[in-house]
Design brief:
The protein is mostly helical. It has one domain (19-214, 221-234, 241-430): Up-down Bundle (Growth Hormone, Chain: A), CATH 1.20.1250.20. The protein is built from 19 helices and no strands. The longest helix is centred in the N-terminal third of the chain and has 34 residues, at 20-53. The chain is globular, with a radius of gyration of 21 Å. InterPro entries: Atg22-like (IPR024671), ATG22/LtaA_families (IPR050495), MFS_dom (IPR020846), MFS_trans_sf (IPR036259). The chain crosses the membrane at residues 31-49, 61-79, 91-109, 115-135, 156-179, 191-209, 252-271, 283-305, 312-330, 336-358, 370-395, 401-421. Pfam families: ATG22.
């Protein structure tokens, strides 16, 4: 019998022949959509939401909760449908257009339009999250299992670079509006930055649409009713998940890891604004995260290939636990800079490694379905982070206790990850299902 290690070594040799054009095109999508993650989810919009629109950090938390729930409900069905029809790229294109259009429209609301902005952010995040589901699923089409940590890490690294580059331009436009022919006062620089996100996202998505090829599916499957088949496959996934016990344990760890990291990303700027840190310091610190994240993510992926993804993931969770505890005591811009640098060291690498590990624990012929299922379940949990932040803030009237509460998610993720046997999980993923 061929062991998992032998199979991975063989696939690694095959992986050396992975189509480089497809890999580059796939990686480039992270460059494209990370503009939304940096400018709208993490940096400019959370501050704009509080200062220009008049919302609160609790309002922002509830907005993130709503987006997470909608994405959770959509993702598994769409993933199952895409696997059956072999059209992950089509769904990727649709959700990309939705997210980019919502980004452009965010330039329209004005002071007091909290509900309108919240609705646009929710729609934008549906586009971002839905597209991300199909993008992740395409990793299995462009990279062999032994190369996925490296390719996945390259994607996140390019995301840091691309998202950071556009964020730097936006920051310069916000700090020096007259250099761009804009009025010194007002919200025009932030509004233009939202339009730039939409254009950037669409423009740099062209390579993945043109060059990435999906594995073909049977013609008979293509002719079936995709919605009905999607529902059937989703129900089948729910029934069969116990057939993959290591995957199930890993998914539980991933849910809490994802929720903790997501909460840090989406709440950091609004938290900093609430405790009195100036907008320029907040955006500059987040820019530091991006540019530290680029080389750190590449290094993280290389180390994960050498010492093991699980070990590196556990270390990153320890770092996040330290970050949120230090965040509780944060008082000035220097502290925020330090924490931003620490986040940059582990954020992209932990997400890339988590994505790569998951790709090896799922059945190779049902990637979009299982990625959709992961998105569904993780989003069902992920609303808890922003919601916990918002509720703790409401009941304690303290954003500091709200950020400290996020430590719960990292502790649980570390505890569950300890019991995951990834080698056994890889064997479970490729064995025939004996229903």
């Amino acid at each position: 019998m061929v062991s998992v290690r032998q199979r991975r070594l063989a696939e690694g040799a095959i992986g050396l022949q992975d189509d480089r054009k497809q890999v580059r095109a796939w990686v480039m999508y992270d460059w494209a959509n990370s503009a939304f993650a940096t400018t709208i989810m993490a940096a400019v919009m959370p501050i704009y939401f509080v200062k220009a629109i008049g919302g609160t950090d609790a309002d922002w938390g509830f907005t993130q909760t709503a987006a997470a729930l909608v994405i959770a409900l959509l993702s598994p069905l769409l993933g199952a449908m895409a696997d059956r029809a072999g059209n992950k790229k089509s769904y990727l294109r649709i959700f990309t257009f939705i997210g980019a259009a919502a980004s452009v429209c965010m330039a329209l609301p004005g002071k007091g339009d909290v509900l309108f902005v919240s609705l646009l952010v929710v729609v934008g995040m549906i586009g971002f999250g839905g597209a991300g589901n199909f993008y992740d699923a395409l990793l299995n089409d462009v990279a062999s299992p032994a190369n996925r940590e490296r390719v996945s890490a390259r994607g996140f690294a390019m995301g840091y670079l691309g998202g950071g580059l556009l964020l730097a331009v936006n920051l310069l436009m916000i700090l020096k509006p007259t250099w761009f022919g804009l009025p010194a006062e007002g919200s025009a620089p932030s509004q233009i930055s939202f339009v730039m996100v939409g254009i950037w996202w669409l423009l740099f998505s062209i390579p993945i649409f043109r060059h990435v090829r999906e594995r073909p599916v049977a013609e008979a499957a293509r002719r079936r009713n995709q919605v009905a088949e999607g529902v059937k496959r989703l129900a089948q996934t729910l029934r069969e998940i116990s057939h993959y016990p290591e995957l199930l344990k890993y998914m539980i760890a991933y849910w809490f890891l994802f929720d903790g990291i997501n909460t840090v990303i989406v709440m950091a700027a609004s938290y900093g604004t609430t405790i009195g840190i100036e907008s320029t310091h907040l955006i500059t610190a987040l820019l530091i995260t991006q540019f530290i994240g680029f080389p750190a993510t590449v290094a993280f992926g290389a180390l994960a290939s050498r010492v093991g993804g699980k070990r590196m993931l556990y270390g990153s969770l320890m770092m996040y636990l330290i970050i949120v505890v230090l965040g509780f005591f944060m008082k000035n811009a220097l502290h925020f800079y330090i924490l931003a640098a620490l986040v940059g060291l582990v954020q992209g690498g932990s997400q890339a490694t988590a994505r790569a590990i998951y790709s090896r624990l799922i059945p190779p012929d049902r990637t979009a379905e299982f990625n959709g299922f992961l998105t569904f379940t993780s989003r069902l949990i992920s609303f808890m982070g922003p919601l916990m932040f918002a509720l703790v803030k409401v009941f304690t009237d303290s954003s500091r206790y709200a950020i400290l509460a996020v430590a719960f998610f990292f502790v649980v993720a570390m505890a569950v990850l300890t019991f995951v046997n990834t080698a056994k999980g890889e064997r479970e993923a490729i064995r025939p299902f004996a229903g």
